[in-house]
């Protein structure tokens, strides 16, 4: 009898151990970095297969390339197991890659209107992914954001519009050619808000502008990944990382500034004068100067002020912040309807807007010194003004924690990236003049005029 009970106990323990071993067993999935519409590049449980589904209406697409802009693994081998709650989770990964290529088996390309499935590892793509479409020897890059690939699921580029794709030669720099165009979805929400400015419509537009901003950040991140692979010096990578970090850190502020400028309904009553509507400013009567104050304009205020012959239209420099404020007070004293002052950093950014990557300007020693304020007048800010970037830095009334005043826009001897509107760490002492710092003026209505 004892032997029977012992045998039963051993059987129970063995069965329990086998069951536990089965529950705790690991499974493996493998995703290839090279896939075709005939070979999906996936090995593992069919129920766990996941990735990106696409369906393109255009003909002639022969290749798709996908990359995580955050450098997260899309291909390789991953171990999956059951956690304590019975949910399948992903464990260790090996031989990973952040890029997958998917090629058509037909020379004519993928069939328009047909669903295709690119296998990937599970991946949180909230920060973005690049979806590159190769067609007729050219390539267009779509950037998706706010998505996540879960085990057993396929995501799709949710707002890819063929007419909005911009094709270029493979290997062309991933940069914005001018300011990003308004996409169709944002335009529809903008029109809806203008017609019916409810809180719901406002929030929908604001959310969409957040998506547009995050797509720009995703593009910058992808450029960073590209530099990490190809840059010869780490300083270039480090500099680009700083730009990305700044955009992420200041996301809410930048979106708010863009939104305020976007919804401001004001029009310039006299576009030919020297004052441009400062859209988005908290003071609805705010205008900003078309250009920095020139030598000739400053000389009218300060008798005895001298400068080199032929430089009437050059920006006035070597002027302290206090001197610039005195000039503004002089303008105010002559005008009973307006108040003149220096801009805050936010007002300056609202006037300038985002600096286009291919902007023409006097920076990075492209000239041997200052130029006339209209020398690069083809490059205009968001308000329509000129000379926001390069030539000379411009005073603002905003300060850092040490009481130093922020200057904006860069100068002729500054690096191009230091001229970016968003750069916010260049400061000067307000009681000194500098050979590469000038100023621009903001005009508002007096209380009586308002």
Automatic annotation (TrEMBL):
Listed InterPro entries: CTDL_fold, Sulfatase_Mod_Factor_Kinase, SUMF_dom, SUMF_sf
Signal peptide bounds: 1-20
Entry keyword annotation includes Signal: yes
Keyword entries, A-Z: Signal
Keyword NAD belongs to the record: no
Sulfatase-modifying factor enzyme-like domain sequence ranges: 271-443
Top-rank lineage group of the source organism: Bacteria
One GO MF term: formylglycine-generating oxidase activity
PANTHER family listed in its UniProt record: FORMYLGLYCINE-GENERATING ENZYME, SULFATASE MODIFYING FACTOR 1, 2
Protein name, entry field: Formylglycine-generating enzyme, required for sulfatase activity, contains SUMF1/FGE domain
Organism: Parabacteroides chinchillae
